[in-house]
Amino acid sequence: MSQALISIKYSILSFLGLIAGLLWSPLAVYLDIVVIGHGMPEQGVTEISQTIFIGLSAIIFYKLMWMMPEQRGFSVLVAGLFLCMFIREQDALLDMMQPGLWQYLVAGVAVCSILVACFWRKNLWVSMAEAAKSYPFAYVLTGIALLLFFSRVFGTGALWEAIFMHDFDRSAPRLVKNTIQEGIELAAYAFILYGSLLYHWEQKSVGVQQAQKEKHS
Q1: Residues in the chain where the model's pLDDT stays below 50
Q2: What is this structure's pTM?
Q3: Where are the domains of the chain?
Q4: Which stretches are transmembrane (predicted)?
C-alpha cells in the first residue's frame, strides 16, 4: 500500500473517530434526560463520560512524559492540567469527604507539575513550539477553549433565566442550562481526548523514526 493511501486511510479513520466522540455527547445527554430520566446528576452518563475522557487524556500525556524524554517538561504540564480538570470533575465527591478538598488537590497537582517541568525545562520551549505546530494538538487546544470558555459563557445561568423569564416553571431554565453546558463540556472533552490520542501517535511515530536514524547513523 502506497504512503498516500495509508495517509488517506489514517485521515478517514481519524475523522470517523472524531465524529464518534462528538456524537457521544448528545447521546449521553439523551440517556441522562430521556432514557434514565434523572436529569443531569454528578453520577450521570454525561458526567462520568467527562471524567473518563479527561482521565484518559491525562494518562496519555503522562505516558508521553516517559516515552519522549526530550518532551517531559511540556508533557508533565499538559498532563498536570488534565489531572487538575479530572479532580475538578470529582468536586462533589471530594467535598463529601472534606469541604474544599478538591481545591487543595488541584493546587498540589499544579505546584508539583510546575516544579517537575522546571526540573525538565531543557527542551520545554522547543516542545511547546512543536506542539503549537502539531495539528493533533490543535484539537486539544480547541477542546480546552470549548471547555474553559465557551461552555462557561454559553451555560451561564443568567443567560438561560433571561431566555425563559416568562416560564412559570423556574426549574426549567436550570435543567436546560445544565443540559447544554454539560453536553458542550463532554464534546470538549472528546476534542481533548481525540487530540491527545493523535498527538501520542504522532510523537510515537517521530520517536520511532529518530530511533531508526540513530541506528543507521
Answers
A1: none
A2: 0.77
A3: 3-216
A4: 12-36, 48-66, 73-89, 101-120, 140-163, 183-201
